[in-house]
Amino acid sequence: MGIKVLHLIDSGGLYGAEKMLLSLVQEQLKQGLEPMILSAGEPGVVDKPIEVEAERLGLPVMAWRMKPGLNIAESSKILHWALSSGYDILHSHGFKFNVLLGGRPLVIRRIPMIATLHGYVHAKKFSKMWLYEMLDRVAITFVQRVVLVGEAMKKELPPKFAQNKKVRVIPNGLDVETINAEANRPLGQDILDFVARHSPIVLGVGRLSQEKGFDRLIDAFPIVCKEFDNPGLILVGEGKQKGALVQRKGELGLQSRVLMPGYCSNVPGIQKIADLLVVPSHTEGLPITLLESMAMGLPVLASPVGEMPSVLGKGEGGYLLPPDCDHDQLGSCIVNCLHDTARQSKVSWSSKKVSESYSVQAMELSYRELYQSMLGVQA
């Protein structure tokens, strides 16, 4: 029998962390492990996107509904269930379970735990999210292994802890064949109609929240509209900032130029027909959307944060924004990228980089070896 791994996540959509987890579980099944995704959510939530996608892919998933916040009682039930079910490893993918389960010493938890840090949002000081992030930074010191998706994320940790031997770096990985197959699935009619009316197409993908910088992208788009006859911007995702972004595109007269279709299960299909992916984030780890675009030959313009400059070869495999650029600079950079006749060389470099350095097979092997070291199992 393979190692039994319980993946723990409270997901708000189908973005980088969720896609990484689904790819990892798919590959773990191929390698003989016994993974299970436990997807937490608030009572009354029927189907979360990660649950729907896991079921579509035939992956083991369990929906667990619980009241939000520091729900110690319900998390204790999860731990009891994991113990009685014989799980060997708890693998957390977010601050919720880092805090609720990771904060318990191993002598109490009784199952070794690994926490993958996909990135911090740098919430406003003294806000609820800020408090959770502070608790997270304390809780991860109790888990047996902490995984960062890139070297740059060590800056997010206290310097002394960042050098601790329990902290490892495992980059996110992709199954390129699966992504190319996903790209052939049909798109929604609203997206097809929009693409038929607009060119070039600029794409943004992610949670609609302040740290992703999509407000800056909308503010920059009038500059793009001055340069091209009928450009279009597609912003894929849901989040608390959606209302403000819809209002802002109206204020700028961009109602017909900006499409916000919400959550889309087939992002690769949109990447296939777009002309440029823009990642204007203020903070990031290693976005799966970035890797997907590189693999599919879609040029990328990204902020110089997190692991993105390294992945893009300091600009050799894509375009990097100036640090802390404003929306005018962003607009000019988008225009320059769309006009650049040397884009193909960057696309070729980035496609090769993904296949060589960011495969799902390499990611799964690294995690498997980490599990084995935690359990004292010989590889």
Automatic annotation (TrEMBL):
Protein name: Glycosyltransferase
A Gene Ontology molecular function term of the record: glycosyltransferase activity
InterPro entries, sorted: Glyco_trans_1, Glyco_trans_4-like_N
GO annotation terms (biological process): carbohydrate derivative metabolic process
Annotated ranges, domain Glycosyl transferase family: 199-346
Positions of the Glycosyltransferase subfamily 4-like N-terminal domain: 16-177
Organism: Marinobacter panjinensis
Pfam family, one: Glycos_transf_1
Keyword annotations from UniProtKB, A to Z: Transferase
Keyword match Transferase: yes
Keyword Transferase in record: yes
